[in-house]
Amino acid sequence: MAKSKSLIIGLIGLVLVIALGLVLVLKDNVELVSAKEAERLLTNQSVSDIIYDTQYIYFTLENKRYKAYEQGLDSKLWALDKPVTIKNQHFFSEILGEVGIVIVLVLGLAVLFQALRLLFKKPKMRENKRAEFLRESETPMESPVSLGVQTYMPLDSGVRFKDVAGISEVKEELLEIIDYLKNPRFYQDLGIALPKGVLLVGPPGVGKTMIAKAVAGEAGVPFFYQSGSSFVQIYAGMGAKRVRELFLKAKANAPSIVFIDEIDAVGKARGNARSDEREATLNQLLTEMDGFEDSSGVIVIAATNKIEVLDEALLRSGRFDRRIYVELPNLQERESILELYLRGKKHSLDIHHIARLCVGFSGAALAALVNESALNALRHKRQEISLEDILATKDKVLVGKKKALSLSEKEKEILAIYQGAKALSAYWLEVDFDKIGLVGESFKQVDKELISKQELMSKIKVALAGNIATKLIYQQSFSNAKDDVARAKEIATQMCAEYGMAERLLGDVSDVAYILDTAQKEMSEFLTNAKPLLEKVARELLSKERLSKEEIKAIYEASL
């Protein structure tokens, strides 16, 4: 590089010398005088070296060079008794003039500079790429211990069980793990071996990561967090190397917790679709958890929502031999979670009522619901969270915000009849719901294990009510019944194929059709008799665009 820099400096210096020489050669270093002054000076007998060109007359007097425009002097010049040299103007000066010479020089320098830059840039790029390649190739050969120190640093968890609500059953399962981490010597002296691995299984958002942090926080031990996907590398052997480094660091800080989130990314069952890198990583993980080497003092906690795809060797005794299923929170747990997240926020909410509204919500969804409700209250300049804010954001948190539809008046009338029939039939059949609008409804999920045939039949009737009502009022069906009809068919099929609720134990398509026909006949009879009430509900729905269960009840009782 030093030789290249010297060469560049030398070339630039040479160009500058050449440019300076051209300027000195082409530029006239003489004094310009007027024609009258030139005429006076030319009368001096000491004048010499007179040169005449097409523009100027040059002469020397007392070792000084002068020039003057030739106009008006040429006739007097020939009258002098002095030798005169006739000379053509410089080519560059004639074509370009002084400004043109400067422009040519600048362009020449620019072209030369660009050529030099391109000449020396490519070798530099090649050198950089070569250095980068060498760094990448050297990385896998670094010391595992030194690299582990840089990559895997223990975390001190500040989370406690009091910060995680709705996990009472899970907490009981983990208390002895915490006690072991606090007093490992006591268990070792008694010869008690606790599970080396705890697998947390459950849907997204139920708090698996928070539970692992709480265990580390309660035990007061170092906490190593890694995602399963971080072990999957493109370089052969790198995944296994990372696993080995992680456990080396965890053992050095024992007792400690290693938490592997989304372990299914690295622990999938080995099969015909061969992946040597993935299998090597999984084998290293299996060895670290229950291999020849001692891993005493390190508890592995992993989380997944796909236990069915994990390798059998990972689930056998001695590895993840304790599995804890973290379910969606029930009513009491939802109340606890809501109380936790509403702590410190102004609100006028009945937490029990809100918890009943939020069937199917995970802990993360409840946290988002409280936050979105607080933002909604802030947007409307309210000082506290109210039920109105919860209802305004509940559907958005669960299924996302839907785009508002642009409907004509005729379409609104059709939808009012359709949705009004569903609202009226849901109230009559005691199918619980929050509200029904022109473009959607919010039916409550059943928070129980056992559902009767009558309850399923009621759901089918509600799903078919809108289509039956439009046939009753408009003598035709509309395409908006698509999803409801599909839902009714799905429930009827489950009743026949899975629940044994058909007339025959081995039900077929004819049994599904019988259930649907029966439900349609009964609902058609009900809506025909309740047509005036249906039209009243539709008018209210068209006016307000959304009706709650209490409002449907008020309309029904007013018509009695």
Task: Describe the structure in your own words.
It comes from Helicobacter cinaedi. Residues 194-330 form the AAA+ ATPase domain. It holds the Pfam family Peptidase_M41. It is a single chain. With 560 residues, this protein is of the alpha/beta class. Helix content is 56%, strand content 11%. It has helices spanning 2-26, 35-42, 74-79, 91-95, 97-138, 144-151, 168-182, 184-189, 208-219, 238-252, 276-290, 312-315, 331-342, 351-357, 363-379, 387-399, 409-428, 453-474, 482-497, 509-529, 531-544, 549-558; strands spanning 31-32, 48-52, 56-61, 64-69, 84-86, 197-201, 223-227, 256-261, 298-304, 322-325, 433-437, 440-443, 546-548. The strands form three sheets. Strands 1-4-3-2-5 form a five-stranded mixed sheet. A hairpin with a 3-residue loop joins strand 2 (48-52) and strand 3 (56-61). Helix 13 packs across helix 15 (363-379), helix 15 (363-379) packs across helix 16 (387-399) and helix 17 (409-428) runs antiparallel to helix 18. The chain is elongated, with a radius of gyration of 45 Å.
Give the SSE layout.
Elements: H1 2-26, E1 31-32, H2 35-42, E2 48-52, E3 56-61, E4 64-69, H3 74-79, E5 84-86, H4 91-95, H5 97-138, H6 144-151, H7 168-182, H8 184-189, E6 197-201, H9 208-219, E7 223-227, H10 238-252, E8 256-261, H11 276-290, E9 298-304, H12 312-315, E10 322-325, H13 331-342, H14 351-357, H15 363-379, H16 387-399, H17 409-428, E11 433-437, E12 440-443, H18 453-474, H19 482-497, H20 509-529, H21 531-544, E13 546-548, H22 549-558
Parallel strand pairs: 1-4, 2-5, 6-9, 6-10, 7-8, 8-9
Antiparallel strand pairs: 2-3, 3-4, 11-12, 11-13
